[in-house]
Amino acid sequence: MRTAVNRVLLALAGLVLLVVGLSVLVGSLDLQRHWNFTMPHWWPFTGPKDVLLTAHSRTRYRSDGWWWPVVIAALAVIMLAALWWLLSQARRAKRLRQLRVDSGDGQGALLRGRAVENVLTAESSGYEGVEWANATLTGKRGTPHARLVLGLAPHATPDEVVAGLDAEVLERARTSAGLDELPAEARLRAVKHRAARVS
């Protein structure tokens, strides 16, 4: 959900910046005159000396009592929405850099999270019915969480793949890292393939 919202917000921001940038470029370079074309009447910049807001537009509502409160409220809402979006990005689960492993001597050892991710990715990719895989570790050193994104082959059965990965791949990861448990979230995606020709 968050990814979709991010894409929509970035697309809207990019569209607004593109339109504003094109309008400034067309007006400042006087492309209408050089290339002999006309812009719509609502286009803000029609020549090098045009401005986005004329003096009349800037001062038209200055004498009205509602003008400044509305402007300040709108800017405050935009600022709060931008701040909320920024904080929501910061709250995204961070990848686990190191994993604490019980070495039996009371001290423990640290295992690189990237190494565990690589092993989980390789073993998941090699599992029957999985075309490709991607693994990410999140959480804390002593209580990691695994996130798997799997591309399933056309003949794969999702429940069998998930059960097999839990019983084999994740179980080996739990045992080798000395973890009591390794909660995992698996996202399954179908791999596109060409239709088989029947003769």
What does this protein structure show overall?
This protein is α+β, with helices and mostly antiparallel strands and 199 residues long. The protein folds into 2 domains: 2-90, no CATH class; 98-190, Alpha-Beta Plaits. The protein is built from 6 helices and 5 strands, in the order ααααββαββαβ. The strands form 2 sheets. Strands 3-4-5 form a 3-stranded mixed β-sheet. A two-stranded antiparallel sheet has the order 1-2. Helix 5 runs antiparallel to helix 6 (158-177). The mean pLDDT is 81.
List the helices and strands and how they pair.
Blueprint: H1 2-28, H2 31-35, H3 55-59, H4 67-90, E1 98-101, E2 109-112, H5 113-125, E3 130-139, E4 144-152, H6 158-177, E5 184-190
Parallel strand pairs: 4-5
Antiparallel strand pairs: 1-2, 3-4
Helix pairs in contact: 5-6
Summarize the structure.
This protein is an alpha+beta fold and 199 residues long.
Q: Quote the average pLDDT.
A: 81
Strand fraction: 15-25%
The fourth-level CATH homologous superfamily of the largest domain is: Cation efflux protein, cytoplasmic domain
Work out the helix count: 6
Protein traits:
199 residues, alpha+beta, Alpha-Beta Plaits, 2 domains, two-stranded antiparallel ribbon, 5 strands, elongated
